[in-house]
Amino acid sequence: METTIAEDFDPSGLLSAGPPIFVRKVSRRRHWRCDGMTPEERVRHAAAEVFTNDDGRVSVFKVENADDFHRVAVGLNSGRSNLSEQLEILGITPEDIKASGLAIERTRGDTACLHANERHYDIIHEEHAIERLVRRLIGNGRLDQRYKRQMERAAQAALAIGCRATASTLPSCQCQT
Amino acid sequence: MGTCYYTDCGTTSSAGAMSLGDETVSPFPSDSRQQARDPVSDDTGSSELVISQFRDLVGSFFRASAPSKRKLRAWVVDDVAVGRRLTERIECILEHVVLSPKPSRLDDGIDILDKPKVDLTTYLRDAQYRGSLSRKHEDAIYVLVRAAGRRPDDAARFVLPWALKSERASVREAAAEALADLGTEAATSMLRQMSDHDNSPSVREAAQEALEHIAEA
Q1: Has the ipTM of the complex gone over 0.85?
Q2: What is the value of pTM for the model shown?
Q3: Do B64 and B125 share a domain, yes or no?
Q4: Residue B75: inside a domain, yes or no?
């Protein structure tokens, strides 16, 4: 059955908690699920591969609704050859971050989507706190979600609103009006 | 591959730096800007300097913001296509795939190596001859296998049979995703085999998902 963007990118489909949630791009499913490891090996592996220390920061986006989410998804793909490429996403709640003792601050994102950039945050990387976060997420059975066919629709929607992720020469997009 | 929703639209300024929408970028230090932006060929200048410039360019690409990435990727692809030290250049890209802290690092590698201008077939044939594939980091293998599966040439022939027989589940998972990109009847048949008989649950799951992807396409 055909689904809508609102259904495809409903943030509550990512995890059982309601919005807002933070989303983090996962390079590859195996980086998060990493089978064949002891629980502690998995925590260290996932912390190193998914929450990589990028100059002391870990980039995440805050999404409140399906509109935010599909635009963040397009923004995350805006550096790729094709906007509709498969995307792997991990959801994190504000409580997960707080309970792990991590600090978070709002910064400007560097995607081609202005809407997504406004919703960008940096988690301040602290090794032990990151491991506490990963341990908590794994303990809660948190899984990454793969967005594949949904990205085709998200890309079409971005094109329809003149999102700058689809072409940087567009004079303006809905986000600037 | 699906419809392309991406329109590249950078314009070259006289200094060789690129104007990309509202930002201007150059992957080179300001004093070497005049050397850009003909592809960095080994025919000009010292070979080591050329490779060192290529390293700078690849580093800039992996660190770049999304709008800058589009043009930088085209430059990297051009340089790999023109340069003589193919293996060294591809190894340099794979190094960044493994070491970059960006979550886009694997996608960035795939988006360079899947371009037909990059002679991945020769690289993979040599790597297979030297037996060096199995010594590579699993993320580097993932990128090579996925890129090969997306190309219109026969690069996949030099890596997929090896990947499917690999003892490492992570490599067989990559092979399953590459087979989904190939989407042929032979690929579907191999995926069915994997989905039914592979001894790793994660590989069986990847094969099942790949089959669903082919069915939806």
Answers
A1: yes
A2: 0.87
A3: yes
A4: yes
